[in-house]
C-alpha cells in the first residue's frame, strides 16, 4: 500500500498519545455510587492482597458481589503475560524502545492488553519507566524503553493507551528511584527536586497523562523514606501535582507499616502478606487502625473509590472474561491460546528494534554467500528448551529476554541458526555451525566459510536470581561467556566477520572493533520469540534496519559516570546521565544515543521553526500536571528524503538546548522524534510539536515549571551527534 504524502505527515506528528480517551469523571460517578453499598470488611478486602499464591494471579484482591466487583487479578509483566503458556513473548521494553516507533508502542500495548484480557487479567503489571536506566549495569533496565525520559515517556503513554483501549488496566512501575537491584530493599535514592522532575518523574507524568489506571511504588527509599510510605511522593507529587486519578499499588512486599503507608497515599497492598508468611500489614490490622482512628475512614474510602474508578474507566464492569486458572501454583495448565496473529507484530517489533552499528563497504545485507559459518551458543535455543530456567534465570542458548518477574514463557523461540538455515536453503548457501563459545571451534568453522556470523550476548535481571555471578545487576559491560575471545578467534580466521549481539544494555565494543576483520555489527537487543526471523529480515535486507540506540554505547565504563552503589545513592550526577553527560563533559561516545545505520541514506532539509507562543498556560489541574504544561508553544518541521537506493525508515530526532537564562542544563535534550518510512526518492515532512513542558526547566525555588526567556537552540538530525539542521527559537 502506498501512503500519500498527507498521511505521512499525519503519521509523523502523532508522537503523543492524546490525553487518554478514558473519562475519569464518568468512572468516578459510578465509583461514588457504588461506595455506599460496601461494608468496611468489603473495603478492607478490596485494598488488601489475599496473600502470596492465595489466588490464581501474582496479586489478587477479594470480590464484592453486591457491586459485581470480581476477584481482581494482577499479573506480570511488561513483555507478556507471566506464568501462562500460550501467550506471545514480545521483545523486551528496551528493544521496543529501540524502534522509536509510536504506532508500534501503541500496537504492542494493545496486543498485550488483548492477551491479558482474554486470560481474565484485570491489571497487567507494566510498562516500566523505573529504573530509567541511569546505571548501565542496572539489572532491570531492559524492562523499560530508554534512559531518556522523553523517549521513555512517549513509549509509556502510547503503550498504556494501547493496553487500556484493549480493556486491561496498565500499571506504571516502579515509582521511584529503583535504579539498581543491589540493596533495592534498603537503599535510599536521594534525588533533588529538579533532577526528579526532569528525569525520573517525567515518564510517569506522561503515563498519568495517558490515564494510567495504577502506579506501583518501588522497594527502595526516596529521600530516606520508603517509596510506598512517602507522602511527598505518592500524595504531593503523584496525586496532587500530577493529578493522578487511579490507585497506587505496592511492589510485592514493599509496604512497611500499616498506618504510614495508608496516610502516605498507598491504595492497595500486594501481595498482602510477606510472600506467604500470612502476616498482613493491612487486612485486620487496617480494620483495627480504622477503629482506633489512626486512619480516617475517608482515606480508605478514597483507596476504594480510586480502585473502583480505574476498574470502571477501562470498562471492566461489563462482560469481562473470568480468570481461567493458568498459573502453575493453581494447578493450571497454561491457559487457552490467546496469541491471535500477534507473532507478526512481535516480529516487526524485533526487526525494527535492531540497530545496525557498523557496516563496512555494504557488508550487509548478505547477498547469497556461497558459505556461512554460524558461531556461538547464542545462535541456538537452550537445548533444554527456551523456558528451562524458571523466570529465565540462566543464560544458556540465544538470549531473547532478561530474567526475573518481567518475563513470560516463550510459546516458541526462533533460533537465529534455524532462521538462517531456512534462508540459506533458498539461496543455496552451505551453513557450518559451531553452536558453542569455544574460540578454537569457532575459528575452525569460520576458516572454511565465505562469511562468519558470530553471536555473543549479555544478560541481566531481577536480583532474586543470580546468574553466573550476576546478582541482577551486571558485573561489567563485557560480553558473557568470554565473547571477546570468541570474536577475536573468529575474526582472526575470517576476513568477513559479522558480529550479532543480544544484550540487555550497552557493552564495551572496543575489543571487537580492534579487529579490522569485523566488518559489521548487528545490535539485536532482546527480541522475544521471533528472534531468528526478525534477524533474517535484516541480515538479508528484506527490510532495511531502522532501529536507533535508546542509550549511549561508551568506549569505557567510567565514561558513564554512574555505577551500582553499595549504600545510599545521592545521585551526584544530577541531570547528567547518558548523552547529557557525554555532551557536557565533551566525552566521545563509541556509538551515541540515537545512532543507527540503514541500508539507504536520508537527506535532511527545509527546517522551519514557528514563532514561540508565550500566552500564559492554564493552571487547571489535569492528569499529567497543570493543563497549560502541555500546550503546544511552537512547532518545528523538516523534510526527510530517501536519497539512497533502497526503501527504508528513518527516525528523525529533535533536540533542544535551553537558553542561558535557565540554570545549568544539558547542552541538548531529546524533545521530539518521528519515524517515517520512505520509498527510494520519496520525501516526507516531519513535524515536532513542542509543548510548554518540553521547553521548560523545573524551578526548585518556585516549585514549578518555568519557560526560560532567551533563545533556544533547535537541532534536528539522525542521532544525538549527527545533527543535520540547526536553528533557534526565540
Ligand atoms: C517486582 C515487580 C513485580 C512483582 C510481582 C516484584 O518483585 O519488582 O515488578 O510486578 O514482583 O511479581
Automatic annotation (TrEMBL):
Look up the signal peptide feature and give its range: 1-17
Name the pathway: Glycan metabolism; cellulose degradation
Q: Which GO terms describe its molecular function?
A: beta-glucosidase activity
Q: Please give the catalytic activity noted in the UniProt record.
A: Hydrolysis of terminal, non-reducing beta-D-glucosyl residues with release of beta-D-glucose
Identify the InterPro entries for this entry: Cellulose_deg_GH3, Fn3-like, GH, Glyco_hydro_3_C, Glyco_hydro_3_C_sf, Glyco_hydro_3_N, Glyco_hydro_3_N_sf, Ig-like_fold
Location in or out of the cell: Secreted
EC number of the protein: 3.2.1.21
Family membership? Belongs to the glycosyl hydrolase 3 family.
List keywords of the entry alphabetically: Carbohydrate metabolism, Cellulose degradation, Glycoprotein, Glycosidase, Hydrolase, Polysaccharide degradation, Secreted, Signal
Q: Which PANTHER family match?
A: BETA-GLUCOSIDASE (PTHR42715), BETA-GLUCOSIDASE L-RELATED (PTHR42715:SF28)
Native organism: Cadophora malorum
Task: Give the domain of life.
Answer: Eukaryota
- Name of the molecule in the record: beta-glucosidase
Choose one Gene Ontology CC annotation of this protein and give it. extracellular region
GO aspect biological process, one term:
cellulose catabolic process
The chain positions of domain Fibronectin type III-like read 650-720
